[in-house]
Design a protein that fits this description.
Shape: elongated
Distance between the termini: 52 Å
Number of strands: 8
Helix content: 25-40%
Oligomer: single chain
Structural class: alpha/beta
Number of helices: 4
Radius of gyration: 25 Å
Strand content: 35-45%
Length: about 190
């Protein structure tokens, strides 16, 4: 199951480098199933970081195919990757673009990290653009910390309950029924 990422803009007061308190709006990325869950998750995550009031000003779907964090990096970069496919019938080359969010310290390192993230790709690709993203932090659904197993078990329970609903018998798949028995039961009522 691939992750669905939502960009959440949060407005709050913070102290800058000069010690002056100012109001700022910053974007964060959360992995969630819906807009409602994204709002709940960003509220939980920001409550741990911000001691004062904060306001969620916007939540929108983020079109990242993959997120790649790297050690010792402090900024996020948006890498546009064009996958190249050859149409055998027409003999033409087709490109499909996807976006990766990679963590790095500068553009060159972001390029190297994008190459590293794409190393197991079977097809040809190009990297036409890399730009610094305004994303401040990324909050994946399962972080691997304590309590993540509890979240994983809860997620698997929800997923299993959906599978049960999908595996229900088809109501139109009716076996032959003895109609005389049904008619007798109707007459007794």
């Amino acid at each position: 199951m691939s992750a669905i990422w939502y960009e959440c803009k949060v407005k709050y007061r913070k102290i800058d480098e000069n010690g002056v308190q100012k109001v700022t709006t910053e974007p964060y990325l959360v992995d969630a199933i819906s807009y409602t869950e994204a709002e709940r998750r960003i509220n939980e995550e920001m409550a741990a970081y911000v001691s004062e009031e904060f306001k969620i000003t916007n939540i929108k779907f983020a079109n990242y195919a993959e997120i790649h964090p790297f050690e010792n990096a402090d900024r996020w970069f948006k890498s546009k990757v064009s996958l190249v496919a050859y149409d055998e019938e027409s003999g033409k080359e087709r490109k499909t673009s996807i976006y990766l969010l990679v963590q790095a310290n500068d553009v060159k390192e972001a390029y190297d990290n994008t190459i590293h993230a794409m190393k197991n790709t079977m097809g040809d690709y190009t990297i036409p653009a890399i730009s610094e993203s305004p994303i401040m932090d990324v909050f994946p659904y399962f972080s691997g910390e304590e309590g993540a197993m509890e979240q994983l078990e809860k997620f698997n329970a929800i997923k299993a309950s959906k599978l049960e609903v999908n595996e229900m018998e088809d109501p139109l798949d009716i076996e032959e029924v003895d109609t005389e028995v049904i008619m007798e039961e109707d007459m007794e009522m």
